[in-house]
Amino acid sequence: MTITIKDVEHVANLARLELSAKEKEVFTGQLNAILKYAEKLNELDTTDVQPTSHVLPITNVMREDAKRPSWPVEQVMKNAPDEEDGQFRVPAVLE
């Protein structure tokens, strides 16, 4: 697959970019070089390689979610600027 100047013009139009003729030629060459380099991956033998979503094995590093007692409401409400019926009272945000 190769990139043509027409392809570069199309992408530039989608991105709302105005490119000069020189820039179109430069980008066409650069994009074709990138594709040529990426095609080298097709030379690799991957028949015995298992498909993965990540290169490295990923494990959950968070602690187990365990039930534990919470602080007493009275102690928590000591720091509340305003309290009503054991809940924090805040200014209304909706009219």
UniProtKB/TrEMBL annotation:
One of its GO terms (biological process) is regulation of translational fidelity. Pfam families: GatC. Gene3D superfamilies: Glu-tRNAGln amidotransferase C subunit, N-terminal domain. It catalyses: L-aspartyl-tRNA(Asn) + L-glutamine + ATP + H2O = L-asparaginyl-tRNA(Asn) + L-glutamate + ADP + phosphate + 2 H(+); L-glutamyl-tRNA(Gln) + L-glutamine + ATP + H2O = L-glutaminyl-tRNA(Gln) + L-glutamate + ADP + phosphate + H(+). The keyword Lyase does not apply. Keywords: ATP-binding, Ligase, Nucleotide-binding, Protein biosynthesis. One of its GO terms (molecular function) is glutaminyl-tRNA synthase (glutamine-hydrolyzing) activity. Its EC number is 6.3.5.-. HAMAP family: GatC. PANTHER family: GLUTAMYL-TRNA(GLN) AMIDOTRANSFERASE SUBUNIT C, MITOCHONDRIAL (PTHR15004). Belongs to the GatC family. Allows the formation of correctly charged Asn-tRNA(Asn) or Gln-tRNA(Gln) through the transamidation of misacylated Asp-tRNA(Asn) or Glu-tRNA(Gln) in organisms which lack either or both of asparaginyl-tRNA or glutaminyl-tRNA synthetases. The reaction takes place in the presence of glutamine and ATP through an activated phospho-Asp-tRNA(Asn) or phospho-Glu-tRNA(Gln). NCBIfam families: gatC (TIGR00135). Heterotrimer of A, B and C subunits. This is Aspartyl/glutamyl-tRNA(Asn/Gln) amidotransferase subunit C. The lineage of its organism: Bacteria, Bacillati, Bacillota, Bacilli, Bacillales.
